[in-house]
Write a sequence for this structure.
């Protein structure tokens, strides 16, 4: 699935799938003014970015993120406050 | 003193309110390119109210999140320069900006650049955020913690129902379930070397007797916590204000909320 195919409901539960090389390329880079990519790993250790980063990207060097494959977001368990 | 009368009093005292904007409000409005008259008036009243309540000088960072874009929401009202040293925020991951403030999703957070180690002491710190989202989950509204889970942080209501908070101490009070709604202004305050207090909407809702620690050397994040350099506990929700500064008294905390809530009401985004 691609960004243009997302329904409103799916926007809340899907993320863009990155390769390791793609993650290395965008980490710490601006996707829009004052806004930086923040790749994270899901529960299966896939590197992902949010739909918001894909949609709002206006940096010409990284417009390819808009064409990333989308996968359902399965977050890593959130660490308890003390762990 | 509670109520909205402070700004009216000051404007009257200065000559009927017919003059220009407060210089600090004007500096922010110029930096953030705020052109909407309602937003300009809201900012001005907020600054005048905080000065009238003698809270303005106790604040180091105030994030009104007004204007609707990243380039406007990033500015610190206390020092609206576009620099890290002025605690201008940067945004990371899934962040959306609107007239309701900042909405965080998936991996989104804001970096305030404000280091507790450089800007607070063991007995003098406060911080808070105004949430428009009622959500029970394991997330931090804001946070900066060292490896021992000591620092400045609020978990308003984790999935188990408990609330954790800290103001230059170990995250505390996780066994208690006393927050029924996570919307509003959550404010954690270091009352003394031994007492930390949590406010919601200007009212003290919990105190904890816990010793102070050396403030952590990690920047406070909004919408997540900075755990010794690792971003965790993402908040999937909407913030409409944030602040960092000195300890407030009970009266000052109440007045501060009054001013912030009046600001939100003027912008039609109060909860």
């Amino acid at each position: 699935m691609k960004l243009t195919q997302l329904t409103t409901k799916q926007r809340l539960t899907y993320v863009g799938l990155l390769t390791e090389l793609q993650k290395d390329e965008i980490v710490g880079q601006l996707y829009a003014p004052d806004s930086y990519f923040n790749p994270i790993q899901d529960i299966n250790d896939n590197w992902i970015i949010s739909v918001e980063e894909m949609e709002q990207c206006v940096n010409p060097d990284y417009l390819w993120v808009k064409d990333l494959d989308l996968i359902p977001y399965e977050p890593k368990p959130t660490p308890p406050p003390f762990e | 003193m509670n109520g909205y009368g402070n700004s009216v009093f000051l404007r009257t005292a200065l000559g009927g309110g017919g003059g220009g904007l407060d210089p600090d409000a004007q500096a922010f409005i110029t930096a953030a390119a705020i052109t909407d008259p309602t937003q300009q008036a809201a900012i001005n009243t907020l600054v005048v109210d905080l000065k009238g309540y003698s809270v303005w000088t106790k604040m180091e960072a105030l994030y009104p999140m007004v204007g609707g874009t990243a380039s406007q929401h990033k500015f610190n009202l206390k020092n609206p320069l576009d620099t890290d040293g002025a605690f201008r925020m940067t945004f990371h991951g899934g962040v959306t900006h609107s007239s309701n403030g900042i909405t965080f999703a998936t991996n989104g957070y804001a970096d305030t650049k404000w280091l507790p180690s450089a800007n607070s002491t063991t007995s003098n710190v406060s911080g808070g955020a105004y949430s428009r989202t009622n959500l029970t989950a394991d997330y931090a509204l804001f946070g900066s913690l060292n490896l021992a889970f000591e620092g400045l942080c609020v978990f308003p209501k984790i999935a188990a129902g408990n609330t954790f908070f800290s103001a230059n101490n170990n995250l505390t009070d996780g066994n208690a379930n006393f927050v029924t709604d996570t919307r509003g202004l959550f404010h954690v305050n270091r009352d003394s070397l031994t007492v930390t207090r949590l406010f919601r909407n200007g009212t003290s809702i919990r105190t904890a007797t816990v010793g102070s620690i050396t403030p952590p050397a990690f920047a406070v994040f909004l919408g997540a916590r900075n755990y010794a350099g690792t971003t965790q506990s993402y908040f999937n929700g909407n913030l409409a204000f944030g602040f960092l500064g000195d300890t407030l008294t009970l009266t000052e905390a109440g007045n501060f909320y009054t001013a912030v809530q009046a600001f939100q009401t003027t912008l039609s985004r109060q909860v």
Observations:
- The radius of gyration of chain B is 17 Å.
- Helices of chain B lie at 5-13, 23-31, 37-52, 70-73, 116-119, 250-266.
- Residues 1-18 of chain B have pLDDT under 50 and may be disordered.
- Chain B touches chain A through 31 residues (CB under 8 Å).
